[in-house]
Amino acid sequence: MPSAADHLHQNVVSRLRLRQLALLLVLERQRSLSRAAAELNLSQPAMTKALREIEDVFMRPLFHRSRAGLEPTGTGAVVLAYARLALADAEALGRQLSVVDAGFAGRLRIGVIPFVSPVVLDAACSHALHQQPRMAVLVREGTTDELVAALRNHELDCVVARSFYIAGEDIVQVPLYREEPALVVPVGAAARLAGRQLDWAWLATLDWILPPPYTPTRRTINTIFAVAGVAPPLPIVETYSVKTMATLMRTEPRAITIVPRAVAQELAGSGSAVALPHPLQWDLPPVGAMWLRREQSRAPLSALVQALVAASRDAGV
Predict the structure, then answer these.
(1) Cα 267 to Cα 291: distance, rounded to the nearest angstrom
(2) pLDDT of 297-314, one tens digit each?
(3) Which of 168, 146, 171 is nearest to 301 (CA)?
(4) Contact between residue 1 and residue 7 where contact means Cβ atoms under 8 Å apart
(5) Which residues belong to CATH 1.10.10.10 in the chain?
(6) pTM of the complete model beyond 0.85
(7) How many other C-beta atoms are found inside a 10 Å radius of the C-beta of residue 282?
(8) Fewer CB atoms near the end CB (10 Å): N or C, the chain?
(9) Residue 269 and residue 222: Cα distance in Å, rounded?
(10) pLDDT digits over 7-27, tens only?
(11) Inter-CA distances, 169 with 80, 84, 107, 176, Å
(12) Measured at the alpha carbon of residue 315, what is the angle toward residues 269 and 287, in degrees to the nearest 5?
């Protein structure tokens, strides 16, 4: 006689549908049967019946009522996590088929941090676009934490970001390059600051442009000040945008920032800033390529990673 576990497994395999998983995600977002029904253009009785049918598949409740509205049960939380992944995979499959129908070999979704080396970004795009037939490319920019979360949610195929000290069993990573820091100031302030020794207490009083909080670069800059015995400065602007930094370097005579050397060169190329000659030291994690372990046998992904490693090595970044 089949056990309850066997019955549950059979239910999930034979009765569960993607549209039911999508309905659960609407319930999670709305926290209300009536609001979820309105979003899906259903009556509330129809919504209640649909939820009952889904819970019958899993043979237990997936939500319970609280003061805040519907809350997932323990089983519900597990099902919702898999629902997000399943729907992300279904969306990716649909887009893969669309680009294949359009004559492409497939689609690569690449995440990059804002301060990524141009050499590596060029290699990522060129590799995909120079395939025969071409690969369609999606490039998404974000912080390391945002990109790794998107990778784990199956929204990206490969991420170029700050390497984790412990990546987790689900993620594979390969280091690509390390970056040296540079102190950058407006052109008008360069001559005055280049010839004087670094006084971190005085520098902290200037108008700092820093990356967002909790990013690896921001934490590393905070450490530079801490080692000097100075409280980290309160920034006038928090941004990863090189364009915004260049604008501030033109308009704010007391502006100052610390960025990777490649970004400093880009800011200097804009004509608004200069990298000071003072050597700095930081322990910023290296930039690496990351992907899900379960995807490492995919030929397009493996070829992309090889291209990134080769570009980093050849350019000496």
Answers:
(1) 31
(2) 788 888 899 999 988 887
(3) 171
(4) no
(5) 4-83
(6) no
(7) 16
(8) N
(9) 27
(10) 787 877 888 899 999 999 999
(11) 21, 20, 25, 20
(12) 85
Which residue carries 């088929």 as its tokens? 97
- Domain spanning 103-178+286-315, CATH architecture: 3-Layer(aba) Sandwich (3.40)
Q: Which pair of structure tokens corresponds to residue 232?
A: 């980290």
**DSSP 3-state assignment of 258?**
strand
Half-sphere exposure of 303 (CA within 13 A, CB side): 12
Is 68 within 8 Å of 97 (Cβ atoms)?
no
C-beta of residue 26 within 8 angstroms of C-beta of residue 62: no
Question: CATH topology for 4-83?
Answer: Arc Repressor Mutant, subunit A (1.10.10)
| CATH code for the structural domain at 181-275 | 3.40.190.10
* pLDDT for 315: 67
- Strand pairing category for 63-66 and 69-72: antiparallel
Amino acid at 137: V
Q: In the chain, count H helices and then E strands.
A: 13, 12
225 neighbors 200 (Cβ within 8 angstroms): yes
Q: How far is CA 59 from the centre of its chain?
A: 36
Average pLDDT over every residue of 229-246:
94
> Could you tell me which of 282, 7, 14, 307 has the C-alpha nearest to residue 162?
282
Alpha helices (H) in the chain, listed in sequence order: 4-15, 18-30, 33-39, 44-58, 74-101, 118-129, 144-152, 187-194, 200-203, 216-227, 242-251, 261-269, 299-315
Q: Are strands 135-141 and 255-260 parallel, antiparallel or unpaired?
A: unpaired
Q: What is the DSSP letter of 293?
A: G
Question: Which tokens belong to 168?
Answer: 């987790």
Q: Which whole-number Å values give the CA distances from 251 to 179, 210, 243, 255, 314, in the listed order?
A: 27, 16, 13, 9, 38
